[in-house]
Amino acid sequence: MNRKIQYYLCLFALVYLFSAFSMLRATITVYLAGDSTMSIKAENKYPETGWGMPFVHFFNDKVKIDNRAMNGRSTRTFIEEGRWQSVLDNLNEGDYVFIQFGHNDESEAKTDRYTDPETYKKNLSRFVSESRDKGAIPLLLTPVSRRYFDENGKIAATHAVYSPLVKEVAKALSTPLLDMDALSQALYQELGPETLKLLFLHLAPGEHPNYPEGKVDDTHFNELGARKVAQLVLAEM
């Protein structure tokens, strides 16, 4: 092999190794877009915990979790308040966007956040397409289940209308789907109604200074519940 060919082969190898090393050093950002079941909580709300809070501890410094989820937000209000635009403005090629809404979209009694089914689907589709336009990778998540059981002790569906809509969008746009509604229901059924209270914001009067009169909340998680749901997300990934 002549020296000129050897030179170019060595040069190619060095460029390849440098590129590979640079890729290994790159940081991937995972954006979390969603509602209170995912969000970071203020100190005066503890022990209420969104599953996005413990999720950050499952990764090394090559992955940054940027939790943009916010209490009380639906797909509509997340857009109207400029929160989605803020995610888009910071998205880089190769980043991920985890999209989980539904709890507030489906609340017809709360007109400040309610989103009808067709608009909900359009908003989810927008999140997916605009993420892809930036070279990012979107994932759709069905909303995690609430703690509701029927009289026979069977976990009851709490997102019977909106979870299927997420699946429709995921299928239509060939988007990865994490069915957190089904996964959380399976976990809840395994634990049963009473044990499951240990995962939710159930506090007796005087048990915690943030809730002196106690709290019974079958939608929001405590630290243990948030970690268990975050583990479900990680395992399904």
Structure in a nutshell:
The protein has 237 residues and is an alpha/beta fold. Helices cover 42% and strands 15% of the residues. It contains nine helices and seven strands.
Notes on the structure:
By secondary structure, the chain is an alpha/beta fold. The chain has nine helices and seven strands; from the N terminus they run H-E-H-E-H-H-E-H-E-H-E-H-H-E-E-H. The strands form two sheets. It has a five-stranded parallel beta sheet with strand order 2-1-3-4-5. The longest helix has 23 residues. The chain is globular, with a radius of gyration of 21 Å.
Distance between the termini: 47 Å
Strand order of the largest sheet: 2-1-3-4-5
Shape: globular
Count of DSSP H/I helices: 9
Number of extended strands = 7
Helical fraction: 40-55%
Please give the radius of gyration in angstroms: 21 Å
Question: What's the story with the biggest beta sheet?
Answer: 5 strands, parallel
Poorly predicted sequence stretches spanning 5 or more consecutive residues: 7-25
SSE class: alpha/beta
What is the arithmetic mean of pLDDT?
91
Beta fraction of the residues? 5-15%
Order of SSEs: HEHEHHEHEHEHHEEH
